[in-house]
Design brief:
Glutamine Phosphoribosylpyrophosphate, subunit 1, domain 1; binds 6-O-phosphono-alpha-D-glucopyranose; Rossmann fold
Length: about 600
């Protein structure tokens, strides 16, 4: 979603803002803008299009030392120069950047229009700028406080006022916001990646808090002006982790990082001597979690697919009834939840608005809440009762790859952890843990043959419709493979449980239609071979994902991509890799912008 950056200090702000925006561009990239303030002048530059378009119209010699910047993912009004942030009030004194949605903007707009205010843009953010200006009587913080009392919805904002040249006022409700603490300077950002080059010391702004930031001082209060004390925290991620390191795209880098980051994810958690899983984050809630009558896994997009794998894992290893819910549906459905329910929110960013809302809903109804989250200190991570971090490092590519394998690995560990406390025998746990420990090296082996996936992509990228079929643990992988392909290459793709094909989608199959079938060794192998034959006899072209050593499958498939053998519950960690590679290469061959696919955003912080 939108990215926010701010700087107040002694150095020229503009290069810091532009560099921050570049690192944030994966959050939204349809327009961008900056506002700088100096000697009671506010200078705003903005432009539709990518950051590079803004850079072309900026005067890079501007020396001002206070400024804010924004990269947008449009919600209210199309991506035009006028709708780009920062937004100013009519007098041009107040400038606002905003991530989120002001839900009562229509009513506020009408009210302000009746007061004689004329609007330039269609955005909800301009409403906020005009409202702050209306309340401004020489104290920006006070005016922001008053304006926010009138507002409903979500926001992470940064506000400048021409009359207060060394001040940024920031506030948050529902959208992420952190403050970087430097020497004689402070930075404001929606995401740690934007400020890592300058500081690793941060303060997380909480919901309903307002920050008054100057070069030397940082004051946090609640909306009701009650002071808030906060510790400075250290970000663990390094600058190298958020750079391309020689790869053409972040997505490719993140696919190839998987052996290493999964080692990090598993490190210290697999105890092969004791046949046990060690998860420090679950120690305090182990009893309650083991006693749960029902587990709900929730998330969005790729995280939802990982949760589906989790459902199979939990039911098989833990034997507690488990359901997977789209976070966006769950929260509005009046779900039946009680104290016997445990909800696990699965999220890379820890900021996805729907997942966060589902978590709050479950919490309010008395459920135990857990997180399987990547970003340390993110909203979901902070608001769950307990959790397990993915530790797969920053994911920048909009199409999620290493977060998926991290999420599945974490859910597998939680399942084994709980399973051992229920019915899973030491022997079965030992086999599971040994198989999990082998996964990183097995992924490396698949990546060593990545060229095979590229060749397959090359053959079929001109086809506009693909099917992905899987059964059991590989059904969610079929969904994930189809999602990867459509989100970055804009090819229409559908993932299905293989047996469902005959109930309708089989009508789509015609000569040469690519059908990716995950047909690894396991309980349903024979059945999936039957499904392949059904596709073949109708002229479909089969790309099979199979287990190394399976010689028979080549007779039924047009192409075979092999993965090493592992136990069925862990197959998704391997079978997804060739599908990530096919999607990546298809997108590159079609000339698509892999890391910034059209209309998408990395972290969706609006409903
Ligand atoms: C967006 C991204 C997806 C991601 C989903 C959930 O739709 O484009 O890649 O899977 O959000 O994000 P989360 O950060 O909660 O895992």
């Amino acid at each position: 979603m939108c990215g926010i950056i701010g700087y107040v200090g002694n150095r020229p702000a503009l290069p810091i803002l532009v560099e921050g925006l570049r690192r944030l561009e994966y959050r939204g990239y349809d327009s961008a803008g900056v506002a700088l303030i100096d000697q009671e002048n506010l200078c705003v530059t903005k432009s539709a299009g990518r950051l590079s378009a803004l850079e072309q119209v900026l005067d890079h010699s501007m020396p001002q030392t206070t400024g804010i910047g924004h990269t947008r993912w449009a919600t209210h009004g199309p991506p035009t120069d006028v709708n780009a942030h920062p937004h100013t009030d009519t007098s041009g004194k107040i400038a606002v950047i905003h991530n989120g949605i002001i839900e009562n903007d229509r009513a506020l707009r009408t009210y302000l229009q009746r007061q004689g205010v004329t609007f330039k843009s269609e955005t909800d953010t301009e409403v906020l700028a005009q409202l702050i200006a209306m309340f401004y009587e020489g104290d920006l913080e006070k005016a922001v406080r008053k304006a926010l009392r009138e507002v409903s919805g979500t926001y992470g904002i940064g506000v400048l006022c021409a009359d207060e040249p060394n001040v940024i006022v920031a506030a948050r409700k529902g959208s992420p916001l952190i403050i970087g603490v430097g020497k004689g300077e402070h930075l404001l950002a929606s995401d740690a990646a934007a400020i890592l080059a300058h500081t690793t010391q941060v303060i997380y702004v909480g919901d309903g808090e307002i920050a008054h930031i100057t070069p030397d001082e940082l004051r946090l209060t609640t909306l009701d002006a009650i002071p808030v004390a906060k510790d400075v925290q250290q970000i663990e991620w390094s600058l190298e982790q958020i750079e391309l390191a020689g790869y053409d795209h972040f997505m490719l880098k993140e696919i190839f990082e998987q052996p290493e980051v999964l080692e990090n994810c598993l490190r210290g958690r697999l105890d092969q001597n004791e046949n046990a899983i060690r998860l420090g984050g679950l120690v305090d809630c182990t009893k309650k979690l083991t006693g749960a009558k029902r587990i709900i896994l929730t998330g969005c997009g790729t995280a939802w697919h990982a949760a589906l794998v989790g459902e199979y894992l939990f039911e098989e290893l833990v034997r507690i009834p488990t359901e997977v819910e789209y976070a966006s549906e769950f929260r509005y459905r009046n779900p039946v939840i009680d104290e016997g329910t445990a909800l696990i929110a699965v999220s890379q960013s820890g900021e996805t608005a729907d997942t966060h809302a589902a978590l709050i809903e479950a919490k309010q109804r008395g459920a135990l809440t857990l997180g399987a989250v990547n970003v340390v200190g993110s909203t979901i991570a902070r608001e769950t009762d307990a959790g397990v971090y993915l530790h797969v490092g920053p994911e920048i590519g909009v199409a999620s790859t290493k977060a998926f394998t991290g999420q599945v690995a974490v859910l597998a560990m939680i399942a084994c952890f709980l399973g051992r406390r229920k019915h899973l025998s030491p022997c079965a746990a030992a086999e599971f843990i040994a198989a999990l420990a082998a996964i990183p090296k097995q992924i490396k082996r698949i990546l060593d043959t990545a060229e095979e996936a590229r060749k397959v992509a090359q053959i079929y990228t001109d086809r506009e419709n693909w099917l992905y079929l899987g059964r059991g643990y590989n059904y969610p992988v079929a969904l994930e493979g189809a999602l990867k392909l459509k989100e970055i290459s804009y090819i229409h793709a559908e993932g299905l449980p293989a047996a469902e094909m005959k109930h309708g989608p089989i009508a789509l199959i015609q000569e040469g239609m690519p059908v990716v079938v995950i047909a690894t060794a396991g309980r349903q192998y024979d059945k999936i071979i039957n499904n392949m034959m059904q596709v073949r006899s109708r002229g479909g072209s089969i790309i099979a994902i199979a287990t190394e050593g399976d010689r028979e499958i080549a007779k039924q498939a047009d192409h075979v991509l092999y993965v090493p053998d592992t136990i069925e519950p862990l197959q998704p960690l391997l079978t997804v890799i060739p599908l990530q590679l096919i999607a990546y290469h298809a997108a590159v061959i079609r000339g698509c912008n892999v890391d910034k696919p059209r209309n998408l955003a990395k972290s969706v912080t609006v409903e």
